[in-house]
Amino acid sequence: MSIRVDLLGFWVVTSGALGIPCLGASQQARVTISVTPDSLLVAPGLEDRAFLTIANSSDSTLFDVRFTSLAASGIHIRFADARLPEVRAHAVLATILFVARDSNGTRPAAIVIRTDYRSGRLRTPSIVLSSVKLIGSQEAPDQVADVKLSSSTETITEKQPGKVFVIVTNKLDLPLSVGRISSRSPVFTAVDSSLGGSIPPYGSAAFEINLRTPGRLQPGRYPIVFDVALSWPSRTGTRRANVLVPHEVELGVFAEVAVLKVLSVPSFLLLPGFLMIIAYQLMWQFQRILRGAKPGEPAFSPTSPSFWVIAITLSGLMALVYPRDYLTAYGTRDLVEVWLVSTLLGAVVSAAWFNWRYVWTTPTTTDLPVTILRKLARQGLGIEREQVTINGGDTRYLLQRMPEGDDQVWVGAPILLTWQSGATDDDRKRLFDLRTRGKAGPLADFLDEAKTRQVIEIDWRPTGATPRPVSEVTPAGKGQIVEA
After folding, report:
1. What is the CATH number of domain 141-251?
2. What is the DSSP letter of 44?
């Protein structure tokens, strides 16, 4: 029995959909249901409508006419007049059919409308089934508009904001409204979003977007997505859509590329150590010039591995003591501060070290013999020194290493030691051993102690021949600067 009912229902639905009279009754063949238009547009969140017409071509009045529809997932159907008291013979009546679709619902291919009525003297119940096609939106966003980006800015910095133009071309024969153009990015702190505007049919418009970076960043390429809101009229109401346009932007720190390129430094992270070494060597040369010496060759060259070993080590120390973490993000302020701190630190250390070495190793005209011996020791020199002839034919001893093109060199007379009456054989033997060893430092210690005990007298030979700088010298052999 159930099989016969199912087959009968299938025939009823099919017959109604094709406009064939249902149930095979001659009376029903004269009752037709039509929907104008024959298809409805069901876009998510919108409602479409159509005229539902019942035409009674029979000689009998139709009573208690009711319109219903079969349930369809995601589709909501309602009638302006779901019930008509009667439809007279040879009359036509119409009502309005409303169809809406859930935003998240699926779209069926069609809906079935059932019309129930009674007719004849016996008020015999009858039904007519008809179907209405459901179509989706015929206007996808890519069919509505073409959205492109244009930008001539290669690198954006916090001092040089970038500009991006969003070009929208209207593909419709209707006006297209461009709403707010916003952006999404993990880096940009501020984007001047455009408020959009209206574009005439088949027209184009460019909308300017300003990009501003944060004060501190990690240079590199970063993604940004522009969200363009579009709206346009349709027969179901105003349609809306969003077009997402991805883009990549190069972010940098103002003047960083130029600075690193000029200095040939591969990364900002290595800049502090590089600057410290360069500043140290420049200050060292400057101090030499101030002291009357010619500038020498730098101790370290940026092309040598030893230079970068020291530079990387100093850069690591700077990263630890710097008040802000520039290993993950930095800006122009960090670049300026690191530059100034690094160069000043290198120059100050160089000046301090040079002056310490100069004061502690360079002779002066007021130095005593023991002081000269100690300065020789600080230079790593012994009492065996080069003899030179200076202007006038006098023979002196070099109080520094043999010069390599310096404008002047320090020379001094021999140091004469004279024993006093209190000297012992041990004193004489110890002096002999120290002179044999040739160490200037231990000899200076012994002479200080012996002079305190007043067993030896120390002076220049000749007396008053204090150290002095000279411009030209002629090598004349070697000898001990200390004579006893």
Report:
1. 2.60.40.10
2. B
Distance, in Å, from the CA atom of 203 to the CA atom of 222, rounded to the nearest integer, reads: 32
User: What region does 19 belong to: left with phi over 0, alpha with psi -120 to 50, or beta?
Assistant: left
Q: What is the pLDDT of residue 484?
A: 81
8 Å CB contact between 370 and 307: no
pLDDT at 381: 92
- Residue pair 385/400 in contact by the 8 Å Cβ criterion: no
- Domain 2-135 coded CATH 3.20.20.70: no
pLDDT at 355: 83
Tell me if the pTM is above 0.70.
no
| Per-residue pLDDT reduced to its tens digit, 429-454 | 999 999 999 999 999 999 999 999 99
**CB of 60 closer than 8 Å to CB of 89:** yes
DSSP E strands: which ranges in 57-161? 62-69, 75-79, 83-87, 91-101, 110-119, 124-135, 145-150, 155-156
**C-alpha–C-alpha distance, residues 72 and 77, integer Å:** 9
DSSP SS3 for 262: helix
Helix (H, G, I), strand (E, B) or coil at 39: strand
| Domain ranges for the chain | 2-135, 141-251, 257-360, 369-483
Residue in the structure block whose two tokens are 């809306």: 240
Is the separation of the CB atoms in 388 and 475 below 8 Å? yes
